[in-house]
Specification:
Largest sheet: 4 strands, parallel
Mean pLDDT: 92
Enzyme class: ligase
Pfam families: Arg_tRNA_synt_N, DALR_1, tRNA-synt_1d
Shape: globular
Radius of gyration: 28 Å
Keywords: Aminoacyl-tRNA synthetase, ATP-binding, Cytoplasm, Ligase, Nucleotide-binding, Protein biosynthesis
Subcellular location: Cytoplasm
Catalytic activity: tRNA(Arg) + L-arginine + ATP = L-arginyl-tRNA(Arg) + AMP + diphosphate
Length: about 550
Amino acid sequence: MNGKHIFAAYLQDQIGNDLTWEQIEASIEKPKQIQHGDLAFPCFQLAKTFKKSPNEIAKTIAQGNISGEFEKIEAVGSYVNVFLNKKAEAQSLLTQILKEKDAYANHRFGHGKTILLDLSSPNIAKPFSMGHLRSTVIGSSIAAISEKCGYQTVKINYIGDWGTQFGKLISAYLKWGEENKVRNNPIEELTKLYVRFHEEAEKDPSLNDEGRMWFKKLEDHDPKAKELWIWFKEVSLEAFQKIYELLDVQFDSYNGEAFFNDKMDASLKALQEMNLLELSEGAQVVRVGDDLPPCLIKKTDGATLYATRDITAALYRKNTYDFDEAFYVVGHEQSLHFEQVKRVLRKLGHDWADNMHHVPFGLILQNGKKMSTRKGKTVLLETVILEAVKLAEQNIRSKNPELHEIATVARQVGVGAVIFHDLKNEKGNDVEFSLEMMLKFEGDTGPYVQYTAARIQTLLNRGNFTGSVPLEFSIGSESWEILSVLSEFPEVVELAFHRKEPSIISKYVLKLSHKFNHYYAHVKILDSKETPERLALCAAVQIVLKEGLRLLGVQTPNKM
């Protein structure tokens, strides 16, 4: 609806230039109860300027001449409340949605700009666990939301293919590994070896020194170490790709940590030339402020660290992609590390580091505790997804055995259930792993929203909907509530982008689904003289639900 813009214009005429258009529009609210109007403007901020009480100001503003876009305008306490011309607004909004389809709520403020996203980033030679789900789906959704706002995105899967853990894994394989077992079931066997190494190291701490020694050999291009590392990496990426195909997630780059091995010397040289490196207990550090510990750049044995690599990666990415902003979708436990890296880049004279943003998220917990591969306490994401798909198929076969392509629909529903369960939670919160809640097909779940969209498709087919918007409307309270929610979608998309928060989209599609299902239960849609207008409303709801789910990475079946 354009009612908000018209109301803002009316308010500007009454207020004058004491508030800008942007300030007025940002202050306009939606009353909690629909009987109080469609839009409201609080007058508290004008009291000082006009030297009157907010109540008096509201009464004065409400006395202006209103256009045909409004049914009425009134002062309620300190608020100016406006009631929109429902028939005009309904026709305008439905015409817009049915014309623009999935382009409805697109924005252009990101046009010509690039956002780089660092997301997913699992470690090779380890299983893709539930713990990796959050970065993958949160980052992928933020990318889709950014693109809807006009940005070009670059999605980088910064694979963890370097570090001391590979020295430990090489050491474990040489001690206890069997080639045939690893070739037949690589991820499971490599994980067993990794877990065993840490169990044995608790009894014999010298094993940790051996692990560090093998990693140093890997850094020094030892042939045996390099051969095993390449093998571990290849089998891991193969296994990861199956997960990404299930989630329907794509990346623009898989350049992992090892990609920057031959590029770190330039970073170290730049730090040396600017006299930023200091010795601290044999290690080389950069002091980044009194409020943070120094950033460790090189250990006493000369091995590089995450910070060295991340600084180098940021320089390479800026040079390669010239991003306007970069989003690092990484767990909140990395906040200190990320701030250190940004400060080092600023000390190197790179002001664009201010446009690098850490997008932290909480953990997926199991019985209130963090999942840990090294302790063998993890739940495999592939197992969860496949179980979700299996359950979805069982439910569909029991409820709709005649449905064609049950396997395809079950995959859409099962995978969607897993993704939506994560993204309906605010990203900063920890999420307790619960297979039962994740696979629930009623209530505030992905399958509930998918089923709402599929139900609408059935109505449109049965009603032979042509896609046109009738010239006349009879707007009831139920349909007006739906139209009001539909009108919010552009603002919801923009807010989700600025807060980097996919759960805003999740909560919105749930709200829209609840409103529609209430409407469906109380209004006769087919075989009524109002059927054409009601089907137009249904079609608009389906368009927005499907687009909202798409922004979350969830597909929408036409039938369930």
